[in-house]
Amino acid sequence: MIQIRKIEQLQLKLPLTSPFETSYGILTEKAFDLLIIEDELGNQGVGELVSFQQADYIEETIDMSRLIIKNELIPLLTMSPIKEPFEVQRRLTKVQGNFMAKAALETAIWDLYARRKNVSFREIFKSTKTELAVGISLGIHTDSAKLLKQARMYVSQGYTRLKLKIKPDYDIEPLTLLRKEFPHLLLMADANSAYTLKDLPVLLKLDRLNLAMIEQPFNQRDFIEHAYLQKQLKTPICLDENIRTLNDVKTAHTLGSCRGINLKIPRVGGIAEALSIVTFCREHNLTVWLGGMFESGVGRCLNIQFASQNDFTFPGDISASDRYYYDDIIKNKACLTDGKLAVPLGKGNGAVLDQEKIERYCYKKELLFS
């Protein structure tokens, strides 16, 4: 039984190595929180709150998540000792939505549970992989020469899949350029809900580029028009923002809205729901791969451990630490070697916190429970 003795919240910001542009806007730094949960034995588990500062990706923002964690979720989490981590999901269902807030606490409990058991997530997930082939996401570039230069650099580093962020009037030309440069590479497009059915002629042209998939072309709550589009295309559609729960995956599968799922652990409320989605995808022949949320090293370690399961065969958006950040808050940074990332060997999520770096980038601390 896990008896929670303390919950601490650290608010941090990490500057990006360069601005990253999507159809939503431009990101120059990433704000995030660490939720550190301590048990009666002094063991600690850490989870990362990754909600964005604006309500553009989904409706949840980091300020909203902080309020929900403090006022709604922690009272449910600490009401009694916890037997095992799946219990957290059941407790927190009393609060509607707010999946990223829930995931920050739930993943911290999973980390704490594994460290108490002296095992890694890889052992809990019964994973056999020790390294992962991974892909990388490219932002919107107005300069084609710079886009090509960046793409060549990442391919030379060993990334096995390129994903390009697109939006209306920035789609056919850059993707054609990349396809011509890399005729056999896994190449895909991510629209972040930037298109409508009025853009069908453009999407049909993208269908000729032998893309691995087109991610989230339409509105994040739409399943019907995605299903219509999938019938028109030979290229698989992948859903991202739509997928908050297993029921969303079931809806998409039943309607034929997609052939692939970009699974993000924070967006679905944590590890328990993510495991259910992976099982459903395996049983129903849906491609599932792991996406990223500009996580720090803590979230990245979790993603690598989770993606080491045998059900993940498509390279996910789990790039090396230096892809987005000059610096990190863990000692065991993710480094690309021969095009692959090693699965962390440590207990729990595998992250080894760097207290000096945490102090450098933390701008506020708060004790939420004791």
TrEMBL record:
Q: Does the keyword Lyase apply?
A: yes
Q: What does the record give as EC number?
A: 4.2.1.113
Q: Per its UniProt record, what InterPro entries does this chain match?
A: Enolase-like_C_sf, Enolase-like_N, Enolase_C-like, Mandelate_racemase_C, Mandelate_racemase_N_dom, OSBS/NAAAR
Question: By its UniProt entry, which Pfam families does this protein fall under?
Answer: MR_MLE_C, MR_MLE_N
Q: Name one GO biological process term.
A: menaquinone biosynthetic process
| GO terms assigned for molecular function | metal ion binding; O-succinylbenzoate synthase activity; racemase and epimerase activity
- Keywords assigned by UniProt? Lyase, Magnesium, Metal-binding
Q: Which SMART domains match?
A: MR_MLE (SM00922)
Question: Per the entry, which co-factors are needed?
Answer: a divalent metal cation
Question: What is the top-level taxon of the source organism?
Answer: Bacteria
Q: Does the keyword Transport apply?
A: no
Spell out the NCBIfam families in the cross-references: menC_lowGC_arch
Identification of the protein by name: o-succinylbenzoate synthase
